[in-house]
Fold these 2 entries.
Entry 1:
Amino acid sequence: MWEYLLISAISGLIAFKLALILYRRRKYPEPHYEWGNIDLDEISFPDNFLWGAATAAHQIEGNLSNNWTAHEEKKNLEKSGEACNHWNLWKDDFQMLTDLGLTSYRFSIEWSRLEPEEGSWNNDALDVYSQMIDDLISRGIRPTVTLHHFSHPVWWEEKGGFADENNLNDFLNYSERVFDALSDRVDVWCTINEPTVFSTMGYTLGQFPPGKRSIRLTLKVMRNLMRGHAMVYRLLKSKRPDVRIGIAKNVTLFDPLNRWSPIDWPVSRLLDWLWNGAWRKGIMTGKMLFAKIPEAKDSLDFVGLNYYTHFLTGLFMPTSTEELEFAKRSHEVATEFGYPMYAEGFRRAIEFIAPLNVPIEITENGVADAQDSLRPEHLKRHLWIISEAIKDGYDIRSYHHWSLMDNFEWAEGYSMRFGLHEVDFNTQERTLRQSGELYRSIIRNSTSK
Ligand code: GAL
């Protein structure tokens, strides 16, 4: 009799436990940490870890004329205009890097400055970039240069930009020219920033230039971005095999809003495949989205990871950004952009790119937060994730916070404030935010150990 009771009690317990697991999984199908139980100050980084911040030319330099300014005009968006007037204030801005204690700075070169008309080159502008690089090096800061961060000349856009494979030679010529001028001092290069964001925002959602909405074109652009990256990689490596060339890949995670929904799950898998999986396969196998791109295979010396959030997918996925309404779990905090802060996903993104088997550089991570109320916690959680991942053996070499200062946030204009420094766009005054102070002290503690 007592055996019978014991077996019933144990089976009851197991059934209860199982039900609990299933219930919890229903609520949070993806990993979720109890942050309150984690000591976020328990972090450590290797001595040679690089601390950085990231920017992009169109978002900070000011007074440009490129595909983006044309798009701002055409779509009646907020104008980038003077932006942070960084083209004139760069020396002061670089002092902010020094004051933070940074050892790497990721920025991009503006193609439209260097080749405003097809075939006519502005060497004075190239010289300014060259001076920037000298200045960074004199400060002990590694220049980390991106060749294409969403913007390019109008004449190239008019030829079809990345939508036409025949145009890739122009991108290659531009890249070679920059490389010839700067590679005696720049050892780390990103060819292209966020190929999937560029292609989906420009060709599916139509929110970025050229404002098109075509799945066929999106897939074409995705493949051409991979081809363009691979061409640049091969040429530059043949010129200087010792430089390190990578790409900045935005890994956004897609999780089903409802775990048991027959729709949410396949939607999440499909989007994850298009956004992340197809790209990784392209680099690992030279095959991408039904095309053979053999030169893409193993075309990375490092992978740049940009991580911001996860998207919860369901039946009603947006087809334009006006419709974008981000779902979040009840325990998650929404950032000002609308999407949730989900630091757990940073670890998953690291695990996702690890099979590429090259060192990882975190090329972007940050949060829109004008009041700086979320950024300190955001920073601490994400740095803790990196610290743990390094302890677990992942080869992560650097962290670049997005961004050094508030800047022109593309289709959102100046409404989204990502800066460690607040910028007053009337006076161009920069003020270090509390999170900037926090970042500085974390760097100081980590480097003085
Ligand atoms: C990235 C992009 C950056 C910046 C950031 C913040 O996708 O590379 O330029 O805008 O998002 O939203």
Entry 2:
Amino acid sequence: MKLPLLDYIRPATLSDAIAALGAHDGDAKVISGGQSLMPMLAFRLTSPKLLVDIGRLPGLDQIVVSEEGIDLGALVTWRAIERDKRLADVHPLLVAAIAHVAHYQIRNRGTVGGSLAHADPAAELPGIAVTCDATLTLVGPNGSRSLRADAFILGGLDTALAPDELVVNLRLPPWRSGRCWAFEEFARRRGDFALAGVAVFYDLDAYGNVYNAHVGVIGVDHRPARLTAVETLLDGQRLDTRLITMAADLARDAVNPSDDIHAEAAYRRDLVGVLVERALARAGNIPLTEAA
Ligand code: FAD
């Protein structure tokens, strides 16, 4: 389908972009990589009067690694994350998750800010942001504000972003060296959105017991979520096959999927259990046959 008629501008500065959004009182939309917005326009799922192209705003395409964590500018693409050699060491979970995003044409264009603002429940980056307690920086007419990812994502395609605000940055907390982690997802075909995905990380204390367990799921509910009951089960325990099976059963009980055109709720519930089992087995380097 052809796109609807609309106006287009490409502001040179962040403040010009925000002013343009504010001047159109909800009738303007930001376009970044366009990989989600263009199909939505073509299908008439959204009909703004103006597109504000932020693709060339300066300074938003940087990946900064510091003691404070890993900062991903809003215009950082999937491809840039994949190509940044530092990230495999400083945030291997992020790199593993992003490897599942879409196909390479989309990966060249799709951005961090676009993915967070779009908030697809099956998208990998919002899931990693929630699992890792990441913080977004938003900029609007009254300056900037910070919001934790779980407060930013309100539901499927629904966020706390005001119509005249932009996502400018995502900060992931620093990654401890020696941390155990895994990302597992299942999609019908490589590059498709996940039917479900699970991100896991935890640290080990001096006795080899788990602490600081984080377990997040995508694709199952209206928004990515942490499985806090599973995290509580794991904390303070030594990971073994018995604990992995208990965690997988608890995960199945903890999620609340619905039927949709891609999968029945019962299938997704079971899939979450399988993915939690696989992720914990991989993170703990425990052979899956033993964990099953
Ligand atoms: P755009 O399409 O430009 O914008 C998306 C939305 O965010 C729009 O509402 C726009 O107004 C808003 N927006 C964009 N940037 C900002 C900003 N900085 N501040 C405020 N609002 C902003 N994604 C996955 O995560 N996993 C997948 O497996 C996956 N598979 C895909 C398969 C296909 C066939 C396609 C077409 C897309 C897929 N995607 C997938 C989505 C892809 O990753 C998108 O690139 C991403 O979701 C949106 O990023 P974008 O930069 O293209 O945003």
